[in-house]
Structure formats: C-alpha cells, structure tokens
Amino acid sequence: DTETEAHDEL
Amino acid sequence: MNAFRLAGDMTHLLSIILLLHKIRAMKSCAGISLRTQELYVIVFVTRYVDLSMKYYSFYNSIMKIVFLGTSISIVWYMRYHKVVKQTYNKDVDTFRHIFLILPCFVLALLINRAFTVIEVLWTFSLYLEAVAILPQLVLLQRSRNIDNLTGNYVFLLGAYRAFYLLNWIYRFFIENHQVRWIPWLSGLLQTAIYADFFYYYIKSWKNREKLKLPA
User: Fold this and answer.
1) Transmembrane stretches, by residue range (chain B) (predicted)?
2) A3: which chain B residues are within 8 Å (Cβ-Cβ)?
3) Is the CA virtual torsion B34, B40, B43, B44 positive or negative?
4) Contact (CB<8Å) B60/A4
5) Is residue B215 part of a domain?
6) Number of compact structural domains in chain B
7) Do residue A3 and residue B50 have CB atoms under 8 angstroms apart?
C-alpha cells in the first residue's frame, strides 16, 4: 500500500 | 533504487565519514556546529523509528544503522571526548535550535499525510532536516577561515539532497510514483538554503582561494 511505500527512502 | 538516489546516499555517507574522519584524525571539531549535529541525530532517530518494525532491504536497514551510529558518535565526540570537546567553541555556536525543532514539530502535526505516530515523526524529520544546516551555516559565516574538510563536508551534505531531487523527478516520471509534496518541498527548501554556500564554495574552488562566506 502507498502509505508505507513512501518511507522506502533514507 | 535508481542511480540518483544511490549517488545521493553515497554523497550523504561520504559527508558524514569525512566529518568523522576530520574529528578522529585531527582530534578537533573546530568550525563544526554541535547544534547542527544534534539536529541530525534527532532527524535520524525520528525518521528511522520503523527500523526495527519495517524491513525494505538489506541496504536500507544497514544504511539506517550506519547513519544513526555515525551521527550519534559525532555528537558523542563533540560533547564527551576529553580532547575533542576542548576544541568546541560554544560561544560561536549559539543558534537556538529549539527555534527550529518546535516549529517543525508543530508543522508536522498540522501538515502530514496521516495523523499517526510514525507518519508525524517521519514528516517532522523531513521538515527538521530541511533547516538543520542553519546553525552550521551561521557558524561558517562567523568563522574567519573555514578549513577545507569542513567546506567539503557542508558541500557534500548539500549535494546529497540535490541528488534526491533528481531521484524524485525520476521516480515521478519513470516509475510513475505518486506526488509527494512533503519530501519534495522540504528537499527543495533544504537545497535552496545551500544556494549561497554553493556559490561561494564553487567560486573559492575556481579561484583557488580560501572559502569565505560574507558575514
């Protein structure tokens, strides 16, 4: 889901 | 992962390694703002709270641990190392970083993608990172001569977020990523704050003269 995907960067 | 983001992460890592090397090799933190370093620890701690809960990739997890470890050890050296802490001049590093922390936190409570602990902390860390360099830039303006390592450190630190801007453009157009105003605008502000430093840094590099920021 897009919610957690947004935190895949450092 | 794309080349821009990898370049950004490596530039960021290099900047921190360079600073840690300067402090350990020269046993000195002259010209470095402890306030900015403390803000970076807050940025990493609040951004990586999901380190133990969320696994994206080995790279992602290892880099988070490295960033947390190095930033905390830099603050430790500047605060507690018997030799290094003597070289810290708190009389010139006077920026009240509470004036950055509180507004960023309030803003994160008001403007965020979701009102959850993780999301608000993540948003706070983005807002805070955008302005975290200010105490360091103020300190550089007060420094008569800026040593090369410090100048290179700040330059690499500014360059890393510029690479991230390219990464976001790439992700939006190529990976048709959805719009993400909070990191994009925070990153844009962060890079813009370095603008005049970049100008003087490149000028000093071209003219082969000492880096000097106008007061």
Assistant:
1) 58-77, 98-115, 121-140, 152-170, 182-202
2) 113-114, 119
3) negative
4) no
5) no
6) 1
7) no
